[in-house]
Amino acid sequence: xxLEAQLAPFAARSAASRGRRFDxxxxxxxxxxxxxxxRIIHSTAFRRLEYKTQxxxxxxGDLFRTRLTHSIEVAQIARSIARNxxxxxxxxxxxxxxxxxxxxxxxxxxxxxxxDCMKDFGGFEHNLQSLRVVDELEEHYGAFDGLNLTFxxxxxxxxxxxxxxxxxxGDVGRRFIEKxxxxLEAQLAxxxxxxxxxxHDIDDGLRSGLITTAQLxxxxxxxxxxxxxxxxxxxxxGRRAIHETIRxxxxxxxxxxxxxxxxxxxxxxxxxxxxxxxxxxxIAFSEQMSHDALQLKRFLRANLYQHYQVNRMTSKxxxxxxxxxxxxxxxxxxxxxxxxxxxxxxxxxxxKVSDYIAGMTDRYAMREHRRLFMVGEN
Length: 378
Known about the structure:
The protein is mainly α. It folds into 2 domains: about 20-25 and about 30-310, Orthogonal Bundle (Hypothetical protein af1432), CATH 1.10.3210.10; about 310-375, no CATH class. Helix content is about 60%, strand content about 0%. The chain is built from 18 helices and no strands. The N and C termini lie far apart (about 55 Å). The model has no long low-confidence stretch (mean pLDDT about 90).
């Protein structure tokens, strides 16, 4: 049975994949993209996401999202939309599950601190690090480093890339030089990520008490759906009202993305993936929904991500990352043997330190910091 026979002509297909960096026999019971997804789920980096910050550091509460639960939510949203657009669900799921594999501990605060530490050594960017994880750092197979994923999955992981890095990366970076688009599956995973974090950050923000429903009522998109919930269920309140409102918001964003993308695809009528690459972005929200999503992002940035209590934790996180980096660079013998560079330029050692820190979970980073700087810890 051809599992991909019902896909649209512009969808990515395993049989037409640009292949893997190292040749392998085709899997007899799975498609190539299913194999990618399975390798990602079984990877060490994927398991670590359970203890990496989304907004709230892991020890701050058991019910807040982590990078792992976020990635699963992205995959669920992306698969649902992909089915409606007749895109390749296995590819979009693989990209969604892998997109944050290279993220540092402590969320964006950790990434910013590590990038600052690495400014003289090529910088740090979590999309590039996610690709580095699946290409080089995972150690599961005897024949090669990394997970040896297909080109299409690797392309989707790499959402952003500077021109110097694109040139260094070869085939997977070429689209940034040639100003072409990735597959529709990659475009979809990127926007499913946005749908997921905008809505679950509202949920976590309300649960934490750092934002209130009264504040959110000033945001038109939220207020409209909260009013619909009140009309449909008079007297509803508390967590039930919040969940019902957020559910409707996610549905509205997904339905708009499906409709607007169908219209764009119909207008450009790509007949294969190559024509998708030559077209402008085809997976997109309508103009009105883009405005609503932007308003929601601005609200979260001003009221949640920059809340003084979040800033206190992110300030600690930046200090932990900076001090770990400085200590390891000053004395590489503090690192596990696999991360010590015995010869070569300081840039090689800096990249190894960066790999070590980026791979840490929140609680491991805090524990390492205590071991290095607190008397009595070991």
